[in-house]
Structure formats: structure tokens, C-alpha cells
Amino acid sequence: MTEPFRCALCGEPLPEGEEMFKFHGYSGPCPKPPIVAPQNVLLEKETAMKPTVGRMVHYYRWLQRGISTGHEGPLSATVAAVSESSPTRVNLMVLNEDGTTFGRQGVAFVGESEEVPQSEYCTWPPRVGEKQDPAKREHNPVHEQAKRGFHS
């Protein structure tokens, strides 16, 4: 016997004649509440996100002033190209505070749990409206290191 076709929302078998659909609906609503994905599954997807052309990122400059060095930013940037040899290196079109743009090539893309380099880099912006524990936000290595800015 073959495995029955299941609703992608509630996980229940679809009625006979509705096997071509992904969800209940033709014969009535789902008989059970939607399945909620576990939080760790969502986090795995987030960390697996790779930069692609056209995506918005935050760009952090690496500046040296005398003996002081550090990151400054973020600036809004758009991914213009992704390196074929190293998918963590991207070319960006960066938007200055005054609205002018400039290009940067070979910028390191840093994921949520990666160490911030002592050079320019870009990362995903924080999600708008995301309900996040303030304690976790403070320990995000990417945003925490950039927030500190210049250090001697």
C-alpha cells in the first residue's frame, strides 16, 4: 500500500480525489490545527541562508584613525555578485548616509554565529518586528562587535 498524500499544513491525509493538492480546502478546512515548526529548525534555515544577487545586507567599514581601528556602520548595501570560488565573498553596491553609492569588491559575508573579521564585512540586517530575547540580542557576536566600533 502506498503512503497517503498529506496536507502540508496539518499533516492529516487528504481525502480521496484531492491528492493533487498540497492543502485541505476543497472539501473543507483542515481537521487539525497547523503543525508548528520547532524553533531549532527555523534557526538552522536562517544560518544556512547564503547571499544572493539583489539581497539587502548591512555593510560595516573597517577604519584606521591613527592607532585606533574598528568597524563603522552599518550602511545599507545590495549584493551585486557572489564569488563562484568563495560563496562567502560578495561584491556590493553600498549606499552612503548622504544617498550616494559606491562599490566594494570581495567583501566578507559573515553569518550570525561567525566571528567578525578585522576588515570590512557585511551581514544580514536584524529582522523587523522579530520578538527576540534582549539577552540573546546583546550576545550576537556580529552586531555586538560592530556596535562597539572603534577601539585602541
**Class inferred from helices and paired strands:** alpha+beta
Poorly predicted runs of 5 or more residues:
41-47, 132-141
- Note the total helix count: 3
What's the alpha carbon Rg, rounded to whole Å?
22 Å
The oligomeric state of the chains shown is single chain
Beta-strand proportion: 25-35%
Q: What's the number of structural domains? A: 2
- What's the end-to-end separation, in Å? 70 Å
Q: Tell me about the largest β-sheet.
A: 5 strands, mixed, barrel
- In helices, the fraction of residues equals 10-25%
Give average pLDDT, whole number.
Answer: 76
Can you describe this structure?
The protein has 152 residues and is α+β, with helices and mostly antiparallel strands. It has 2 domains: 38 residues, no CATH class; 92 residues, no CATH class. It contains 3 helices and 5 strands, in the order αβββββαα. The protein has a 5-stranded mixed barrel. A hairpin with a 5-residue loop joins β3 and β4. It is elongated and about 75 Å long. The protein starts with 38 loop residues before the first helix and ends with a helix.
Describe the structure concisely.
Helix content is 15%, strand content 29%. It has 152 residues and is α+β, with helices and mostly antiparallel strands.
